[in-house]
Amino acid sequence: MAIIIAKDSKGNPAKIKSVIFPPTKEEEVVAFQFDAVIKKRIPSIEKELIDEGLLDSKIPSQRRPPRGGNIKLWFALGKQLREIVKDSKLVKPKEYRWALEAVKMYATPRILRKDRGSRLHLDYCIRVSELPWDFVKKLNWDDWVFFLDSKSLRQEPRTDKWLQSRIEKLGKLDRSKFRELAKRLNAEFKDIDTSLYSDRELFSIYDSILESIISNSSKSHQK
């Protein structure tokens, strides 16, 4: 498959990324189909967020783009983007990050934030949006950034699966305990290739640390 990630001044593809290069004719057709979708949908999504009062209608200066943003905005954006960049008919898993680059061609500084290394703002929005809103809204956006900035958590996709399966217990954590969880999980797997662990092994360690934090929190409240 292929993804168009840049265009020239005339709107013609200037850069195409594909798993196998050069892409086949069939892959190029799908690439243009995806491009047509995001060209229409990204401006539409921004308008919807403006209408909901989550975005300012004025486009910020690219020289001084805004920072931060509230959790409701980024959750809503992630939910909308998820339906597009995870459309299996247009984007394959290996093309996910290219699809995010493609989205940026049609997005304004209203929804863009500076990426840092492997920290991808739009990816964070999408990952957080896959969790239940009732849980997500208990934390601030910077708490989620803090969690996903932890290298061993950001690079391990199964972390998201674990979060989704432990919502009830995670809901017992306040902001400080949630950050403590991120620190301890990251420290546990620092410089370790977590792909060597089975789901059961990995989740068992995650669970042990989570239970420890919940237990300590309960004891401190009883004093």
Radius of gyration: 20 Å
Estimate percent helicity.
Answer: 55-70%
Largest sheet: 2 strands, antiparallel
Q: What's the helix-strand series?
A: EEHHHHHHHHHHH
Termini, distance in Å? Answer: 59 Å
Structural class: mainly alpha
Low-confidence parts: none
Strand order of the largest sheet: 1-2
Q: Judging from the principal axes of the Cα atoms, what is the shape?
A: globular
Q: What does it look like?
A:
- With 223 residues, the chain is mainly alpha-helical.
- The chain has 11 helices and 2 strands, in the order ββααααααααααα.
- It folds into 2 domains: 1-113, no CATH class; 131-223.
- It is 57% helix and 5% strand.
- It has a two-stranded antiparallel sheet with strand order 1-2.
- Strand 1 and strand 2 (13-18) form a beta hairpin.
- The relative contact order is 0.10.
Please give a handful of descriptors for the protein shown.
single chain; 223 residues; mainly alpha; 2 strands
Annotate the secondary structure layout.
Layout lengths: L1 E6 L5 E6 L6 H27 L19 H15 L10 H9 L16 H9 L3 H4 L4 H9 L1 H4 L3 H8 L1 H4 L4 H14 L10 H24 L1
Helix pairs in contact: 1-2, 2-4, 6-10, 10-11
Give a summary of the structure in a few sentences.
The chain has eleven helices and two strands, in the order ββααααααααααα. It has 223 residues and is mainly α.
